[in-house]
Predict the structure.
Amino acid sequence: MPEPPQFSLIIPAFNEAALLPRLLDSVDAARSRFNGGSNAIEVIVADNASTDTTAEIASARGCVVAAVEKRCIAAARNGGAAVARGAILCFIDADMRVHPETFNVIADTLTNPRVVAGATGVTLERWSVGLAMTWIVMMPMVWLVGIDTGVVFCRRGDFETIEGYDELRMVAEDVDFLLRMRKLGKPRGQRLTRARSAKAIASTRKFDTYGDWHYFTQMPRMAWRMLRDPHVRDDFVRRYWYEDR
């Protein structure tokens, strides 16, 4: 029986046929540079009820495909983790790309027993004045709470202890997950970390769709409407995060 992999990289995906191949290309490059060998990393695509060829692409590229029918990104992350065999679980969105040294950096990071979990952080695939201003506004919050995005990673045992991602959350499930990881690690003398030497490349497709300044123009008006009417909030979440493809 083959040895279980060291890493399981889990990719939640809904109708990602256009962008999934470039992520998988970057993952192949990072696997080829992993000091533990490429076979120590399994790649799982959690197909979240796609209606395009996402699952077929993933299968053709040698990924494990986990079918997750519940349309919720937290459920997709958990569905991928449910079939994972690695001791280290990593999660990345399908529209990103990983750094070539991702797995080496995460492996080195988790040799520190004082680290409970973390994320690599990101850089953007393109820049503009609007994107730079959005970055400037968002980054102080990242520094303040110590929670980042990109490739999120943790040990399997800790993932199981906190019971994975909260499937009642349609958005911000990754922030909640890391906050609960931090709470788990605190009494053990552990902390979250940011593995910034292996930043992922984040897609700007939301900005491509809604405009580079939409965090300053559309978002404040939408936030006010959502505070006044929960139905507006639910409709916005569905359209902005779940129906854009």
About this structure: The chain is about 45% helix and 15% strand.
